[in-house]
Write a structure and sequence with these properties.
alpha+beta, 408 residues, 7-stranded antiparallel sheet, disordered C terminus, 11 helices, 5-stranded mixed sheet
Length: 408
């Protein structure tokens, strides 16, 4: 399976300038190619293929208007156009119903605060013996290695986020690890007062990272709004706001990682409800829903279950987990949110609303039957995200056109 490893890098002043130049060149090539295809579509001409775009890129480097494209690695430009092809492919697949619909590719702005470039093996990048990341026409970047890569990566993506931080992202192939079997099976009910309620009665409080950092975020945003647009002080204030949000997001991500790893290690099978997060994000609870980050947490549970040999199950969002009694199964209708404890009219059981829902999630996933002797083993699931990664077996190096890499 593919896993993403991200490490913080600390470029020098000169390396920051070189990276900014690479970000800008990749953006210009992307926009030029998009403009060519949109112009062809507007005039009724056929869709411009990748080979033609590649020829135009080569010719553009020899013109006075675009000769500065030769100051960066050509692989960066080729990968930028491969991203354009991916954007078109996703757009057309959405129209065909093969994936959720998304908009057509749009032009990138130089004011975008998040930038990314990708280097493949053809670029000749490498990790030096001193632990630095050597990138062509950039130099040796200092990297904070927090862990060891399980295999040798073939690509590296350099990302600059809104807070001005730089990261090196590697997607590598790794073999799944099997944890010792356990008889523990758990259903999870996600909420706002408590972030997660487990079917064994455990309740995990919601940290509410955004609300806890609310005063600092408001102050930073207020200072930003008072700065003159286009001034250097406004850019400094914008970075302060971005860093405040980044700290909140990092704390939330760390909480998700620790909790998901603990649940996966302690349980053979995990079941969660497929919540309509987009719908809930349009209600008056939107801020709390976004602060909880349910989708990210369940995605972590899914890929960690596949990695460590556990079973992950999603149940339908229309399953009446809050309406049925977990003791006798009788459904007596929906209940207002202010009803936290209720008594079943059929069997007389006193039920905690959240724990009852978690138990029903486990039952709906069939974990009760699994506990009686059925073997619980996971199926294969895709990686967290799609990005070019390492190959399981060595493959011969080919040219960009032979490999089907999109070019301008």
């Amino acid at each position: 399976m593919q896993l993403r490893y991200s490490f913080r890098v600390y470029p020098t002043v000169g390396q920051r300038t070189a990276l900014a130049r690479a970000f800008g060149c990749a953006r210009v090539v992307f926009n030029d190619a998009l403009r060519v295809r949109e112009t062809a579509h507007a005039t009724g001409l056929p869709f411009v293929p990748s080979g033609e775009l590649s020829k135009r890129l080569t010719a553009a480097k020899k013109t006075p208007e675009r000769e500065w494209l030769g100051e960066v690695s050509s692989v960066v430009l080729q990968q930028s156009l491969r991203d354009l092809d991916t954007a078109y492919r996703n757009f057309f697949d959405g129209l065909k119903g093969k994936r959720p619909r998304m908009g057509a590719p749009r032009f990138k702005s130089r004011k975008d605060t998040r930038q990314a470039i990708r280097f493949t093996a053809n670029a000749g990048w490498k990790i030096t013996t001193g632990g630095k990341l050597r990138l062509p026409k950039v130099g040796d970047l200092a990297v904070k290695w927090s862990r060891t890569l399980p295999s040798i990566p073939s690509t590296v993506t350099v990302v600059r986020d809104s807070a001005g931080r730089h990261f090196a992202s590697f997607v590598v192939e790794t073999d799944p690890e099997t944890l010792p079997d356990t008889d523990s099976l758990v259903g999870i009910d996600l909420g706002l007062t408590h972030f997660a309620i487990l079917s064994d009665g455990t309740k995990i409080d919601s940290p509410r990272f955004m609300r806890r950092a609310g005063k600092k975020l408001k102050k930073a945003q207020r200072d930003l709004s008072r700065k003159t647009k286009g001034s250097a002080n406004r850019e400094k204030a914008r970075i302060k706001v971005a860093r405040a949000h980044a700290r909140t997001a990092d704390a939330r991500r760390e909480f998700h990682h620790q909790l998901s790893t603990k649940i996966i290690r302690e349980n053979q099978a995990v079941a969660v409800e497929d919540l309509a997060v987009k719908g809930l994000a349009r209600t008056r609870m939107a801020k709390s829903v976004h602060d909880a980050g349910w989708s990210t947490f369940t995605a972590m549970l899914e890929y960690k279950a596949a990695r460590y040999g556990r079973t992950f199950i999603r149940i339908g969002r229309f399953e009446p987990t809050s309406q049925a009694c977990s003791a006798c199964g009788v459904k007596d209708g929906p209940k207002p949110l202010n009803v936290r404890v209720w008594t079943c009219g059929a069997c007389g059981a006193v039920l905690d609303r959240d724990i009852n829902a978690a138990v029903n999630v486990a039952k709906a996933a069939g974990l009760a039957a699994s506990a009686c002797g059925a073997q619980v083993r996971p199926g294969l699931v895709p990686a967290q995200r799609e990005e070019t990664g390492t190959h399981p077996k060595p493959q011969p190096v080919t040219t960009g056109r032979q490999a089907g890499i999109t070019a301008l």
